[in-house]
Amino acid sequence: MNYISDELYRWFRIYNHFFINIIFLFQFGILSLFYSYSFEEKKWRNVVEISLILVSSYLLVKYLVFPESFFLLHYWDIYLTIFPIIVYGVVYLYNEYEKPQELYYANLALLIHFIIYFFCYLSWPLHSISFQHDYMEEFNKTFSIYTINLGYITYVVYSIILLYQ
Question: Are residues 76 and 112 in the same domain?
Answer without folding.
Answer: no
